[in-house]
Amino acid sequence: MKIAIVSDLHLGYERFEDDAFSQAREALEEASRLSDAVLIPGDIFDKRYPRPEVISQAINIFRELSKKRWGASIVGHNGATPIHTSAPIIAIPGTHERIAEGKDNAVRLLSLAGLLADTSEATTVIQKGDEKVSVFGLGGIAEELVKERLAGLDPKPTKGAFSIFMFHQSVYEMLPYSEHFIRYADLPKGFDLYVSGHMHSRQEASVHGKKLLIPGSTVLTQMKGEEQASKGFIVFDTQDGTHRFVQINSRPYVLGTIEVKDAKPSELLEKCDAEIERLISGKGAKPIVRIKINGTLAKGFDKADLQVHALTMRYAPKAFLSIDTSQLSSPGTELMIDELREGKIGDMPIKELGMLTLAQKLKEFGADPKIGYTELFSLLSSQASKDKILKAANEMLFTDGS
Fold it and tell me: What's the CA gap between 151 and 31, in Å, rounded?
């Protein structure tokens, strides 16, 4: 059986919303043409609560897929919530779709509509002829809870079937940022293939002697260097264990670096102009360009003198331009305005850094380790009134109300 793995569509991603939609449609249509079944390991949507027009886009895509005459069909499902389709389009919610436990997320709504099968914390079995493939799914959950949840679920491969474990989490060996991230050794043993979403660049590894395949996202969202690689999906053949990457049409993303020492803003802008023109030459479609500037400014100047916004606007007709000055220093006070604009400090997003800092502080103060730091962080950063936030946080931290 040929299984397509298409992940992290991020429908509704505001910066490149049209790209997210058109590239997701192309990936899924081509995947359905080349395979007998499609797996989607999370983040179909970019927001927990997608706008109605974004949900409409998703419905239109999956309605067409559900009409296809598939080579395989769903023949079994043991989840608490029944599924309403036999079309072998099997998905789990990702971290972007995670909401409070017990509430319906956007992926489950598509499943209830019969447009796909949500296999989160369940096993779904598909069959083609005499061959069966089973898929156990674990949707994206708080990083500090995933090991405990896996231990409680204790997922097992299905006897007589090629068994796949599909999940959506940060993996420590690939992203060594937090002790809470799941490790290869924590993944359940006995499965024939491991499939994950969440990481937006294509990656492969070996887990318990079997393949772990991550196709990456179908749209650029994180502006990292590794996302210069082509976007697409993976097709895996259960008969011979081989797989191949299928490229889709996606907007070009190029990254450039400029090194300077004691440069005047006018000199640096000239360097930027030359580098931008070099990067966009021959790219065709309006590319995404990111320039990193490393080094120092001349005495008497600071980053505000660069007029980065004016440069970005000047190139707006030719490119989606982003200029990173986080590694550019001036003789005066170090400014962090540009980093904050980009929503990060160094290479780590500010939100992620904030969550990890909160986790460390909770640990230092001896808080109950079962407290979900990601959920607490989301609560503290919500738009609710201060009184409601403090009341809810108090209830989460102090069960006795003290």
Answer: 33
